Structure formats: C-alpha cells, structure tokens
Recover the amino acids of this structure.
C-alpha cells in the first residue's frame, strides 16, 4: 500500500512566502514605483533568496498581476451601485466624487507611483489598463 503525500504545512509555508513577496513588492511599488523595483529589492524586503522569488514568480508580469490583485483586495475600488440609486443628480455626483476622492486619498502614494510609471514602463501600463481600463 502506497502512502499519499499531501502538501499541508509545506503548502501553507509556500503561500506565506508568496504573500510576503507580494506584500514587499506592493510596498516598494508604492515608494519607489514599479519601474524602479528590482527582484533583489523585493527578495531582500521579503526575506527570501532570489531563487525563492523566481520559484513563486517566473517573470515580472506574474509579480505585477499578483501585486495589483493584492492592492485591490486591500483597497477595492468604490462601488458605484451605492450612489447610482440617488435620484438627485447633484447629490449623486457629490456622493460618487466623495467615494472616489476618499479612495484616492487612502491610496495616494501607490496610485501616484503606478500612474507615473505607467507613462513610460510598458508592463506597468499593461497591468494598469488590465485592472482599471484605459486612461
């Protein structure tokens, strides 16, 4: 009878390591920007070796997709459904703009760095358009 090997604890550790890498990258994207963030910087901040980084993210695009996903998970975009039901157009505009401005205020550093880099860094532009649509 053969024993089935199931990744439990190891899978949890792998997921924790992956999460640390993504969180480190999001932090760096918000400070130095995605275009200036290097694999070495991310690995150092996450406390892993470069080969561990590449085991989780074989290319820069997969990291950027994970980062944008985590950023939106942490701070989802405002849901327009809550203000679409407001009949008064002026009030609807006020509520909608307040929600949008509040979101940008909470995410100012990351959004500023990403939008700045999206102007000249093709991958950042691609992922930004994928997540938010064209400018």
């Amino acid at each position: 009878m053969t024993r089935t090997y199931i990744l439990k604890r190891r899978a949890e550790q792998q997921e924790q390591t992956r999460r640390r890498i993504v969180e480190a990258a999001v932090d760096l994207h918000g400070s130095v920007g995605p275009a200036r963030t290097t694999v070495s910087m991310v690995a150092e901040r996450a406390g892993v070796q470069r080969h561990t980084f590449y085991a989780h993210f074989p290319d820069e695009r997969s990291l950027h997709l994970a980062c944008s996903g985590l950023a939106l998970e942490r701070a989802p975009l405002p849901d327009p459904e809550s203000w679409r039901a407001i009949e008064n157009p002026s009030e609807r505009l006020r509520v909608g703009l307040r929600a949008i401005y509040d979101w940008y205020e909470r995410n100012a550093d990351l959004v500023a760095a990403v939008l700045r880099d999206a102007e000249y860094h093709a991958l950042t532009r691609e992922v930004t358009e994928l997540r938010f649509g064209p400018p």
